[in-house]
Specification:
The complex is a heterodimer of chains A (204) and B (313). Chain A is mainly α and 204 residues long. Chain A has 12 helices and no strands. In chain B, α2 packs across α15, α8 crosses α11 and α13 packs across α14. Chain B starts with 8 loop residues before the first strand and ends in a 21-residue tail after the last helix. Chain B is built from 16 helices and 7 strands. The chains are: A mainly alpha (204), B alpha/beta (313).
Chain lengths: 204, 313
């Protein structure tokens, strides 16, 4: 049996999503008629338990436990649901907002551990590089990829590409400042601390 | 059709293009130069945050603040028309412009942070840029110039079986601005026709995702590759030689992982993968190493394109 936490005002949850800065669909979520067009065209629904129609149903019921549900992490962000919705809702955006709520509350921290490299590369090079912790997997799955990466400078030179990959110190500093004043850097430190704490608990 | 600029363009550098398929940038420049498109690249412009954003690491305020900085650079350089080589950069930047114009709270908050921290020169004023009038993908520019493409075609690629994969973040995110169809996307098919070729047009799963799903490829590879297999099987059923892309992330998913997915499916997949700019540059006579950048490709380009036939010969 699944337990649901339904608040006194179920609509509050939907309204919180509507107010989120990421929402570009105004009150689209309230217009959902549960037609299921999103689910019928969704690649994650085709191949997993992910169900976009059900996500909106739970949001409209005020079921905030949805942020603890692992299935929300299966969305591909392909925006197919967003592009076909007959009432102008976007489950894809709602999903992203739910995940940010999960992250703010700490519930979603562990989903980000593997992706901290995206944050680090911003502070060191102002670029969104694939995190190094995936390199071993890529090297195993993609023959020749590591050699190619070692020769990247030469290949770029042959293509006469300018400017170089690494921005100037001034640019990196400016970007680092921006990501500090938005609160991003603090958030990353909290997530990293949480991972270290979990690792310590495991070894204790 | 919406008005598409061919001048005052800032060609927006993409992280994935830069480090995975640099030939996409070289080919875009090669084709733009031949078509007389007025563009420049700025060393000050930084990554859109897209990969981190869609892995849920960056929230909207982080992404829009970085966006505001890049938009300021474009304005200051007198190149307010941002043209993206990557579908995700396109979707991310268009959304940030929309939100910064529409949401006063977001814009004021970011501007206040800039003011308080010595970054006043980066402030974004409402309507500094317009989402439909200033934010484009390279395919939009190629489409606007498509009548001129045929004048520059050197090689006849019409004997190859060609299909297109239209990236979701070009077609579906800002569907009101998409040229050439959303549910039945055809912008690249129409551009390829100007190279003297015909694509196979519609195929099963044509409008579907590449399966990358950002975090899915790394954290959930079974789900990711199962979704990709839907499309790869459909493409192989049609016996496609060349799949043409407009997004480096889709490009990675197909080119880098084709042999792995073939093993999973117990099939042999043979298509090569070219970005639309690489395809046109090839047809215009671009050198394999100096323009197309074939060394970056996992599925060898010469496994399909063995020799080139000049038009009319």
């Amino acid at each position: 049996m699944t337990t649901q936490k339904i608040s006194d005002s179920p609509i509050d949850f939907a309204e919180k999503i509507i107010r989120d800065v990421k929402n570009s669909k105004e009150d689209g979520v309230l217009k959902c008629v549960q037609c299921g067009m999103c689910t019928s065209t969704c690649p994650a629904a085709r191949h997993s338990d992910y169900n976009p129609r059900d996500i909106i149903e739970r949001v409209l019921e005020g079921d905030e436990t949805i942020i603890e549900d692992d299935c929300i992490w299966n969305c591909f962000y392909c925006y197919t649901c967003h592009s076909v919705c007959p009432v102008g809702n976007s489950v894809c955006e709602v999903n992203q907002i739910l995940k940010q709520i999960a992250i703010e509350s700490g519930i979603g921290y562990d989903k980000l551990y593997e992706y901290m490299g995206f944050a680090d590369s911003y502070f060191t090079a102002a670029i969104g590089a694939i995190p190094e912790r995936f390199f071993a997997d890529i090297d195993r799955d993609v023959p020749g990829w590591w050699d190619f990466r070692q020769n990247l400078d030469e290949i770029r030179k042959e293509l006469d590409l300018d400017p170089p990959l690494m921005p100037s110190r001034e640019v990196i500093d400016e970007v680092s400042t921006i990501l500090t004043i938005t609160g991003f850097k603090d958030k990353i430190e909290r997530i990293r601390q949480s991972e270290e704490d979990e690792n310590e608990e495991r070894t204790d | 059709m919406k008005n598409v600029p061919t001048k005052d363009i800032l060609l927006f550098r993409s992280c994935l293009v830069s480090v995975e398929y640099p030939g996409v940038e070289a080919s875009t420049k090669y084709v733009f130069d031949r078509l007389g498109v007025d563009y420049e690249i700025s060393p000050k412009q930084t990554c859109c945050t897209g990969l981190g954003h869609y892995s849920d690491v960056f929230d909207q305020i982080d992404t829009s603040a970085i966006g505001a900085r890049n938009f300021r650079i474009a304005k200051d350089e007198g190149r307010p028309n941002l043209v993206m080589m990557c579908a995700t950069c396109y979707a991310i930047n268009k959304k940030s412009v929309k939100l910064l114009n529409k949401k006063d709270d977001l814009r004021n908050h970011i501007n206040q942070l800039f003011d308080e921290n010595g970054l006043s020169h980066l402030k974004y004023e409402k309507d500094d840029l317009k989402p439909t009038e200033n934010i484009f993908h390279v395919v939009d520019i190629l489409y606007a110039k498509k009548d001129e493409i045929k004048k520059h075609i050197k090689y006849d690629l019409s004997d190859y079986k060609i299909a297109t994969h239209h990236g979701c973040h070009y077609c579906k995110v800002h569907y009101e601005d998409t040229i050439g169809g959303v549910r039945d996307p055809n912008i690249m098919d129409e551009i390829i026709e100007e190279c003297g070729c015909r694509t196979i047009g519609w195929y099963d799963h044509k409008r579907a995702t590449c399966g990358t799903g950002f975090r899915q490829r790394y954290s959930n590879p079974d789900l990711s590759f199962t979704a990709t297999a839907d499309k790869m099987n459909a493409i192989d059923d049609e016996d496609v030689d060349i799949l043409v892309h407009l997004c480096p992330n889709c490009h990675i998913q197909f080119d880098r992982y084709q042999h792995l997915i073939a093993e999973r499916e117990g099939r042999k997949f043979r298509a090569i993968h070219l970005n639309i700019a690489q395809f046109i540059a090839l047809a215009m006579g671009g050198d394999f190493d100096k323009v197309i950048g074939v060394k970056a490709h996992t599925v060898p380009i010469d496994s399909v394109i063995k020799d080139l036939k000049e038009v009319g010969k």
